[in-house]
Design brief:
With about 250 residues, this protein is of the alpha/beta class. It is built from 12 helices and 8 strands. An 8-stranded parallel beta barrel has the order 1-2-3-4-5-6-7-8, surrounded by 5 helices. Strand 7, helix 11 and strand 8 form a beta-alpha-beta unit. Helix 1 runs parallel beside helix 2. It is globular and about 45 Å long. Bound molecules: 1,3-dihydroxyacetonephosphate. The site of 1,3-dihydroxyacetonephosphate has 14 residues, from strand 8.
Length: about 250
């Protein structure tokens, strides 16, 4: 079965939560709760929490990611962080194109593509987010929209580099709302993303690609979502801030 070709990835997106001191506490709890995961486990923390997360996660199965990066290596971009800076710190993953960045910070498909290329060049593994607003779902354009977001994000990404890319399907209406997509809805759109990747890179590349679902995934609904044939993991917001809940989700991803 194709799902067996892929290693699931459970990533926590802490968003703008936890000071460094609070992060230290949560990472200690996560380390105690997650000792031998059967999937990749990543925590994507605020920039200011990266040093403590990296130090505490060294030698553990928990990997560390950032939540954004700029597309240039250096220069006059006040307030920005480059992928090279993250890489040098030891950061492995970076969330790109999250809907909150698209909605509040002017992120576009084109800038997501630029960031994806820059992150890959620096040796980071991008978790590229795509997903529709409720009105778009109601208009019946989810599949086209998500396929387009995927195609633009991957423009210029080589087949070799694609192996380091994760795509996260996050329906915007399900984020932080407690309104989860049904397992069927999540699988349907993850399958559209996989078919789009197959169009661009061929079936083998698509079969090997990790595609996550994100949006109100929690300890209760994770097992059903993760059992879907095209859902290879989760990008978890709220529930990633509680070690007990996050570790249940990790356990569900076997
Ligand atoms: P919630 O799990 O809080 O809905 O957030 C999902 C998300 O945006 C992860 O990136």
């Amino acid at each position: 079965m194709n799902k067996n070709l892929r290693t699931p990835c459970i990533a926590g997106n802490w968003k703008m939560n936890k000071t460094p001191a609070e992060a230290a506490v949560l990472v200690d709890e996560l380390k105690a709760a997650i000792t031998a995961p059967e999937c990749n486990v990543v925590i994507c923390v605020p920039f200011t929490d990266l040093p403590v997360a990296l130090e505490k996660c060294a030698g553990t199965p928990i990997k560390v990611g950032a939540q954004n990066c700029h597309f240039e290596t250096s220069g006059a971009f006040t307030g920005e962080i480059s992928p090279v800076m993250l890489k040098e710190m030891g950061v492995e993953y970076v969330v790109l194109g999250h809907s909150e960045r698209r909605t509040y910070f002017g992120e576009t498909d084109v800038t997501v593509n630029k960031r994806t290329l820059a992150a890959l060049k620096a040796g980071l593994k991008p978790i590229v987010c795509v997903g529709e607003y409720l009105e778009q779902r109601e208009q019946g354009i989810t599949a086209e929209l998500v396929a387009m977001q995927t195609k633009i994000a991957l423009q210029g990404v080589t087949e070799q580099d694609l192996k380091n890319v994760i795509i996260a399907y996050e329906p915007v209406w399900a984020i932080g709302t407690g309104k989860t997509a049904t397992a069927e809805q999540a699988n349907e759109v993850c399958a559209v993303i996989r078919a789009t990747v197959a169009q661009l890179y061929g079936k083998a590349a698509a079969d090997g690609m990790t595609i996550q679902y994100g949006g109100s995934m929690n300890a209760k609904n994770a097992a059903e979502l993760l059992a879907q044939p095209d859902v290879d993991g989760g990008l978890i917001g709220g529930a990633s801030l509680k070690a007990a809940d996050f570790s249940v989700i990790v356990d569900a991803a076997k």
